[in-house]
Structure formats: C-alpha cells, structure tokens
Write a structure and sequence with these properties.
This protein is an all-alpha fold and 197 residues long. It is built from eight helices and no strands.
C-alpha cells in the first residue's frame, strides 16, 4: 500500500468520524450532562457497531444494498425515528438529579451500537469507504482496522470536549437550554431526512 493510499484512508476516516452527526451530538450532550466515564460505553457501542457494519458491507452486502432502494429508505426512516427518540431523551435529561438517583438512564452500549446501524451517515460512510478502498482484500482489512481506531479516537474527542466545557453549564437553566438545543438539533435533522430525502 502506498503512502498516498494510507493518507487518503486516514483523511476519509477522520473527516467522517469527527464531522458532527447524530452520534457526535449525543456524545457531546452526554459528556456535558454525565461526564466522560458514563459516556464511554456509548462511544464503545457506536464504534463497534459501526465497525461491524463496515465489515458486513465490505464483504458482499454492498451490492445487495445498491440493488435494494427499499432497504435504504427503510433504514433512513427507522434511523430518523430512532434519532428523534434520542433527541427526546436529551431534552428530558436532568443530570443535576443524578446523585443517588437510580432512575437516571445514561446512554448505553446497545444504544450506540443500534444508532450506527440506523444512522444514514454511518451507512454512507461505510458504502463510500468500501467503494473507494476495496481494491483488494488486504487494503480492506487495513481500512477497517484504521477506521476502527480513528472512529474511537474521534468519538472520544467529542466526549472529552463535552466533559471539559461542562464547567460552563453550572446551572439548571443553562443545562436545560443546552439539552433543548442539542435534542432539537437531532429531531430537526431527523425530520429533514424523513421529509426531504
């Protein structure tokens, strides 16, 4: 593999992992509300879920997806509904009551995993990556491993940023406004997918 190919793969994985999308917004919100540690399981679920999706698409599922527009439309619809649900969870979250409150539900591993399988951005990234770099099996294996590492680092970066800026959200009102904004962004983006795609 040439250096140019490696740098191209790295840039592709970095840009699509770091660029804000539903997963990044949820991670930022969760880390501001609950901290890095309680967000890490969601990060792990999102990274592993995406990597498994990429593996499946890499080894034969790509052609089936391209020939099945109904499947793509269904993923967009169910994904949008799930993103709206996650947006709602952000809007109603209240981290100031989390001390000794067992009813508080943090973002979980399975939610991160499932979100990637219902996230149109993840499907786009997987199909595009496979189309660009599946020139041979060795390149594909390398691309999958590289994407896994880059995805973990980029998603963790969003959680670290959220954890660091949480100091600015030191009142119930500020946090409620932030949660309303982040949840609203997710719901609006999901509605956009449903209405205009």
């Amino acid at each position: 593999m040439s250096v140019t190919t490696f740098l191209s793969m790295l840039a592709f994985a970095f840009v699509l992992s770091i660029f804000p999308g539903p997963v990044n917004v949820l991670i930022l919100s969760s880390s501001i509300n609950y901290g890095f540690k309680k967000t890490f399981s969601f990060i792990s679920g999102a990274t592993i879920g995406f990597t498994i999706l990429l593996i499946i698409i890499s080894f034969g599922f790509k052609e089936f997806i391209i020939e099945s527009p109904f499947l793509v439309s269904s993923i967009e619809l169910f994904g949008s509904l799930f993103i709206m649900y996650m947006g709602y969870k952000i809007i109603v979250s209240n981290s100031f009551n989390l001390n000794n409150d067992k009813s508080i539900q943090y973002l979980r591993f399975h939610e991160g995993f499932l979100l990637q399988w219902l996230n149109p951005k993840a499907w786009f990234a997987s199909i595009s990556g496979v189309a660009l770099y599946a020139t041979n099996e060795k390149n594909m294996y390398f691309f999958i491993i590289l994407y896994f590492l880059v995805c973990y680092l980029c998603l963790s970066f969003w959680a670290i940023v959220g954890n660091r800026i949480s100091i600015f959200f030191n009142s119930d009102l500020k946090l409620k406004v932030f949660n309303l904004l982040m949840g609203g962004i997710l719901i609006i983006s999901a509605l956009y997918i449903i209405i205009f795609k």
